[in-house]
Design goal:
about 625 residues, mainly beta, Immunoglobulin-like, 4 domains, four-stranded antiparallel β-sheet, 1 helix, 49 strands, elongated
């Protein structure tokens, strides 16, 4: 089968497409008679599902539980000329001819309107107009279907109601309203008043009920959902013109629906909740009161906080002379103190906070933005988003937000003058921005404070060289680690080792070693920044052991000359005698020499003297040789 040209696509379900195609056939009584064909098109082919006679279109196409529901309205002539009524039928199809059926036929209903899907059921409403000798009559019914005939039922029939209005969903229930006009007991004819009823349904006949009826109220308005309760308002006008305003909370059941705030006005006084803002646990709303006295209007704004129950609703602010929430004092934010930080490091911002305007636990939201850094907080008392980025939002009570702001950390990401800007809002009340600055600088590498002097080592020398502890300093005070290599980056020779912990080179200089350059690298452990220094090591010949000649014994008389030699120098020095001026036989001879040696002089009498290199006598006769061994 081929899909007719000019067909209209209605919907697509799991790859299958539902099309409609209108055809017209001649009719003797009124020209052309329309019919609508429904086609199901899949990859396997095209199937004609059904033909709806006298229908020029289908509408209200919805998918529910692998079925597609749709409606068609046709005019059915009556037995008399110019009589008849519209009949609307709700259909369902599973994509097969056998599975395409009429679920519900509603005489007198011009159209049906899709309402909502709830708990795997499609809800729709139908309004029926009738006429008799008393006049026109209207009623509205709410239906539900799961896509099958057995699963299609009427939930509520509302006489004298021309349409219903959706409120909200709460706890798997749908709240809706219906308004009609009544004559209250004791009132004269013509003094009709509106009566609005709030209903709740779970999509089944047994789960549908009236929650609350509000006399004098022409419609209600849902504001928000808090603590799984729908918050809605209703304004009633009495016959004498006095207006009253109420705020209600409902969990979707009659027992759980209650008035949480009621304001009785007076003549010339109106009160209307004009602003609602809150979260999942509490909300705040504004009640604007206008009263007229002496030709002038006086305004007053009251701010209430509520958890959605009567007991949990209380007045927070009473602000005479204030017109509307935009005139309320906004939260105040105290700016943080200036700070400084290195890139890659974090710093706390002292002094940040939100000032509590009035006692209570009002909900606030603080937005913190930063430049040259990112933001975080360690406490996480409130609800936090954007942690670790340059923009973070903290929501909660003032106490919670204050704790999180007090633990705010700024981490520098780039050098410059960073800013931290904080604003706080409560509903549509927003504070001015409070800003503080953070100086962000890049960390500096270690500094070579004292250059190591070039070294002179000798072949065969046992080297143990420790460079000075103050050679390098770190501007940030970070601990340093050290490595050593040859100046060209090559590893140290095998005979030379470097102990980084003690900053010491050690080893034995082998024969054939030439001069070389050493490089020491100092790295700070916090930022991995490095500084180097190099110094030269010269290598000299092997050091010789001093040769001490054997004791020289020479004899002679006074004023006789003597000489001695030192094997290590290969030279000989002559030491002339000096005349003994006083010719005293017990005076020692005076001796001069040019070598750093100690000389013992013994005169003819056997007296011993220790003569210094200058020739001076250090000790007179009877010199105690054993006592002065070390000096000798």
């Amino acid at each position: 089968m081929t899909l007719p040209s000019g067909s209209t696509l209605l919907t697509t379900v799991n790859g299958a497409k539902l099309y409609s195609h209108v055809i017209y056939t001649p009719n003797a009584s009124h020209g052309l008679d329309p019919s609508t064909e429904l086609y199901w098109v899949t990859a396997s082919g095209t199937t004609l599902l059904t033909t709806i006679s006298h229908a020029s279109s289908v509408y209200a196409v919805e998918s529910v539980n692998s079925h597609v529901t749709f409606a068609a309205s046709v005019w059915v002539p009556g037995p008399l000329l110019n009589t008849g009524q519209t009949v609307t039928t709700l259909y369902s199809t599973d994509g097969t001819t056998r599975g395409t059926t009429a679920l519900l036929t509603l005489p007198g209903v011009n159209t049906i309107n899709e309402f909502q899907q709830l708990n795997a059921r499609e809800l729709f409403q139908a309004t029926n107009w009738t006429h008799d000798q008393t006049g026109d009559h209207v009623s509205t019914a709410l239906y539900a279907t799961n896509g099958t005939s057995a699963g299609t039922s009427v939930l509520n029939v509302l006489p004298d109601v021309n349409g219903i209005g959706e409120l909200s969903r709460v706890n798997s229930h749908l709240l809706y309203t219906a308004t009609h006009w009544v004559w209250p007991q004791g009132y004269q004819m013509g003094s009709q008043m509106p009566l609005t009823t709030v209903y709740g349904t779970d999509g089944t006949p047994g789960g549908s009920q009236s929650l609350i009826s509000l006399l004098g109220v022409n419609g209600v308005s849902s504001k928000l959902t808090v603590n799984q309760r729908d918050i809605f308002t209703a304004t009633a006008v009495a016959a004498n013109g006095v207006q009253t305003t109420s705020v209600y909370g409902s969990d979707g059941t009659a027992l759980g629906t209650q008035e949480i705030l009621h304001f009785d006005g007076g003549k010339g006084v109106t009160a209307s909740p004009t602003a609602f803002f809150g979260d999942s646990t509490a909300f705040v709303f504004e009640l604007l009161i206008a009263s007229q006295s002496g030709g002038s209007v006086r305004y007053e704004t009251e701010i209430f906080e509520s958890d959605g129950t009567t007991a949990g609703t209380h007045l927070k602010w009473d602000l005479p002379g204030i017109y509307g929430v935009s005139a309320l004092p906004a939260p105040l934010v105290t700016p943080g103190a200036a700070a400084s930080v290195l890139t890659g490091s974090s710093v706390g911002i002292a002094g940040l906070g939100v000032l509590q305007i009035n006692p209570g636990s009002q909900q606030v939201s603080a937005t913190v933005t930063a430049t040259h850094g990112t933001l975080s907080t360690s406490e996480m008392q409130g609800s936090i988003s954007g942690a670790g980025t340059a923009k973070m939002t903290i929501s909660g009570t003032i106490a919670q937000v204050d704790v999180d702001l007090a633990s705010l950390k700024f981490t520098g990401t780039s050098a410059g003058t960073g800013t931290i800007s904080v604003t706080a809002s409560m509903g549509k009340l927003t504070s001015s921005a409070a800003s503080s600055t953070v100086s962000v600088t890049a960390p500096a590498p270690p500094v070579l404070a004292h250059h190591t002097a070039d070294q002179m080592w000798a072949i065969g020398q046992h080297v143990s060289f420790q460079f000075a502890a103050n050679t390098f300093t770190d501007p940030q005070g970070a601990p340093l680690s050290y490595t050593a290599s040859l100046a060209n980056g090559a590893a140290l020779p095998a005979w030379l080792s470097f102990n980084a912990a003690t900053e010491t080179f050690s080893g034995i200089v082998p024969a054939g070693t030439k001069a070389f350059d050493l490089k020491v690298v100092a790295t700070d452990l916090s930022y991995k920044l490095s500084t180097t220094e190099s110094f030269n090591v010269s290598v000299g010949a092997a050091a010789h052991q001093a040769q001490v000649p054997a004791a020289i014994f020479q004899s002679g008389g006074e004023n006789d000359a003597f000489s001695y030699g030192a094997a290590s120098s290969g030279s000989e020095s002559s030491v002339p005698s000096s005349p003994d001026t006083d010719q005293s036989p017990d005076r020692q001879p005076l001796v001069s020499h040019d070598l750093p040696v100690a000389i013992l002089a013994i005169d003819a009498s056997g007296a011993v003297g220790h003569i210094h290199g200058s020739g001076d006598i250090i000790h007179s006769p009877l010199f105690d040789i054993g006592h002065h061994d070390a000096a000798i």
